[in-house]
């Protein structure tokens, strides 16, 4: 009984697989006489496109454009000086360092190593925070 059921399932799966492969390519993906260029032009408003009106819109935009005059070229750096990088404004820091105080620690005399070697007491200095933190522009203005 079990073997009959397994054989029946195998036959059903084989029939389904063969039925899936019998679909026609032309029925699944219809293809007319349009080339890829025709489809592109139709969707982007090119010469073959009657669906969208992008072609006349682009032509209207192009007619409104004008070349830069000499006065425009001379006036441009002054208008962009606040956010353009130059050697002069690179000297001024935008991101100031936040305070990271130094801590002084005294290490008492001790014995170290596999052979107990005496180490004299000493003082060491290390920063409070592990990393240097920076403020956002305008967040902190006073220097330290």
Strand coverage percent: 5-15%
Structural class of the helix and strand makeup?
alpha+beta
Strand order of the biggest β-sheet: 1-4
Termini gap:
89 Å
What integer value in Å does the Rg equal? Answer: 38 Å
Number of helices: 6
Can you summarize the main beta sheet? 2 strands, antiparallel
Helix and strand run: HHHHHHEEEE
Unreliable stretches covering 5 or more consecutive residues:
48-52
Helix content: 40-55%
Counting DSSP E segments of at least 2 residues, the number of strands comes to: 4
Mean pLDDT: 78
Write a compact overview of the structure shown.
This protein is 41% helix and 12% strand. With 144 residues, the chain is of the alpha+beta class.
What does this protein structure show overall?
The protein has six helices and four strands. With 144 residues, the chain is an alpha+beta fold. A hairpin with a 4-residue loop joins strand 2 and strand 3. It is flat and about 90 Å long.
Question: Which key features would you list for this structure?
Answer:
144 residues, alpha+beta, two-stranded antiparallel ribbon, two-stranded antiparallel sheet, 6 helices, 41% helix, 12% strand
How does the SSE layout of this entry go?
Elements: H1 2-21, H2 25-28, H3 36-44, H4 54-64, H5 70-79, H6 87-91, E1 102-107, E2 110-112, E3 117-119, E4 122-127
Antiparallel strand pairs: 1-4, 2-3
């Amino acid at each position: 009984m079990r073997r009959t059921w397994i054989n029946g399932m195998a036959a059903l799966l084989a029939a389904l697989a063969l039925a899936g492969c019998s679909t026609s390519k032309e029925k699944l993906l219809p293809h007319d006489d349009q080339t890829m260029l025709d489809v592109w032009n139709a969707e982007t408003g090119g010469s073959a496109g009657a669906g969208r009106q992008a072609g006349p819109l682009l032509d209207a935009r192009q007619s409104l454009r004008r070349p830069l005059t000499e006065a425009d070229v001379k006036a441009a750096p002054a208008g962009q000086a606040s956010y353009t990088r130059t050697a002069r404004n690179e000297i001024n820091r935008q991101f100031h360092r936040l305070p990271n105080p130094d801590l002084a620690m005294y290490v008492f005399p001790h014995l170290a190593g596999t052979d107990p070697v005496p180490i004299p007491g000493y003082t060491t200095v290390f920063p409070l925070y592990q990393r240097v933190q920076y403020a956002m522009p305008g967040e902190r203005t006073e220097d330290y």
